[in-house]
Amino acid sequence: MGEEQAGEAVPVAQRGSWTSFLKAIASMSGDLSSLTAPPFILSPVSLTEYPAYWCERPELFAAIADAKTSEERALAVLRWFISTLKGQYTTRNESVGSEKKPLNPALGELFYGCWPDKDGRGQTRLLTEQVSHHPPITAYVIENESKGVKLVGHNAQKTSFSTGSIIVKQIGHAVLTVKLPTGGEEQYLLTLPRLRIDGLWYGAPYIELTESSYIVGGGFVGVIEYKGKGYFSGKSHSFKATLTPRPGHGGSATKEIVVEGTWHQNSKFTSGGHGQFHDVSMPNEIVTATGGEAGGEMGSMETRKLWELVAKGIREGDFELAQREKSRIENEMRQRRKDEAASGVPWALKHFTPLANDSVYEELSKNTKIAPPTEDAYVFQENWPESLK
């Protein structure tokens, strides 16, 4: 690599700040989340909105409830999950040429949204809340009530720098609950993949998924192995998913099912089935943002209201406006935390209650390689705003 190639994707006016940013990353030994990124690499979207990527193909989320057997449901859960990855991890690279750093949410930040009923799939609704600032944790619930499918989870990130890449360990998990026609329900535990952000040298970051994540439930253990493009070989965004029956867990299936392909394009069965498994070439469905106030308008802590001017500055290239408004918001939030500390009254969460140990996680992670053996959780209080009831 020649020196002239470094930062070639960075706007000329921003190359000095990008170089300083890379040096700061390389010199830090701990978590990188506190670093301030140069304005051109910022996304106009807060992390509080990111749970919407779980459901930008709402027909696949709804289809989980239509499966007739435990094996069909396990495959439907896997198909839906794999189909969420493109939106979560490649859409910004495809639309604007590189990965962008999302805005760090403020404690108590909120986002509400929905996907309308189409072709009998039912309405799907979304609620997210920033439940912690240090460490930053986002809790969310996605529900299609008419179909009886509900996802509740939380997500945090711990970032570090290694051999020219940013490594993001995603902390947290989600639990998917499916109501059955018999009146019972099945639950699935979903863990999160680890990310590697490459392309920093050029100033054009992109995400690759690494290691493994799990889907456990309905009598099956699903292991998804991510294999990205290496220096000398491999294909970007490749994966191999293996679905194995759990003896003694109620499932009647005995065969192992294997699916392979690229999560941002398509995949097929390579064992235990035939033909195509998933295909995300069709356009995704962007969430419709909904105001959570009594009159349907957005409140001051709703993400699109809170970051409105910052987002405007980023989208229009007015980085001075973006930085000024971003600093104002961050200073206001710091002062709010100081005031709370002085009064001895901590910030009260609006929609979630913390739980020290998640019994569903603990039970479903048994006899797997999922670590740690237990995790905390955030319990949704079932208090949807009127606009989403």
What's the quick description here?
It comes from Mycena sanguinolenta. Helix content is 23%, strand content 32%. It is α+β, with helices and mostly antiparallel strands.
Overview of the structural elements:
- The protein is α+β, with helices and mostly antiparallel strands.
- The protein has a single domain, classed as Beta Barrel (Porin).
- Helices cover 23% and strands 32% of the residues.
- The protein is built from eight helices and 19 strands.
- It has a 15-stranded antiparallel sheet that branches. Strands 1-2 form a two-stranded parallel ribbon. A two-stranded antiparallel ribbon has the order 18-19.
- α6 runs antiparallel to α7 (319-343).
- It starts with 14 loop residues before the first helix and ends in a 9-residue tail after the last strand.
- The model is unreliable at 1-6 (pLDDT under 50).
- GO terms for molecular function: oxysterol binding.
- Belongs to the OSBP family.
The SSE order reads HEHHHEEEEEEEEEEEEEEEEHHHEHE
Total strands: the figure is 19
**Count of all domains:** 1
Mean pLDDT over all positions: 88
What does the secondary structure layout of this molecule look like, with pairings?
Blueprint: H1 15-27, E1 42-46, H2 58-63, H3 70-89, H4 91-96, E2 101-103, E3 110-115, E4 124-132, E5 137-144, E6 149-162, E7 165-179, E8 185-191, E9 194-198, E10 206-210, E11 212-217, E12 220-227, E13 238-245, E14 257-262, E15 266-271, E16 276-279, E17 288-289, H5 303-306, H6 308-316, H7 319-343, E18 352-355, H8 359-364, E19 377-380
Parallel strand pairs: 1-2
Antiparallel strand pairs: 3-4, 3-17, 4-5, 5-6, 6-7, 7-8, 7-9, 8-11, 9-10, 11-12, 12-13, 13-14, 14-15, 15-16, 18-19
